[in-house]
Amino acid sequence: MPVEEAAIRRISNNSVALDLYDWLAYRLHALAKSTPVPWAALKAQFGAGCTRMDNFRPTFLENLRLALAVYRHAKVEVIERGLLLHPSHPPVPLRPVSLVAGRPIGTKPARPAVLSDLERGGRQEGRHEGN
């Protein structure tokens, strides 16, 4: 999932905010409908080192605030039981990809770095036809 480099630089001193940004960037654009995520699941994923939920929530919400400040398209609600994630645009617009060539539309195919002997029109050394 592409992320916005400027956003990453702004929160680069906070590993939990970075993790939240990446998680939201990955999850939100793929959602088909609004999805609740309970506090227990959030604590399991982002609460390493926090033993009590009442200690986890304020720290998590501050880091979420930082992540949302740089991911402006994110649609996230804090609810009593956790978060409610809504389908959102990715932080960086996705580039259309050609289904045939597997590369962004309008780009030229990459040249292979090394051509095989067959592509150069020769034979491989030490190999004979029939082997």
Automatic annotation (TrEMBL):
**Could you tell me what this protein is called?**
Replication protein RepA
Q: Where is the composition biased (Basic and acidic residues)?
A: 117-131
In this chain, the stretch annotated as Disordered covers 103-131
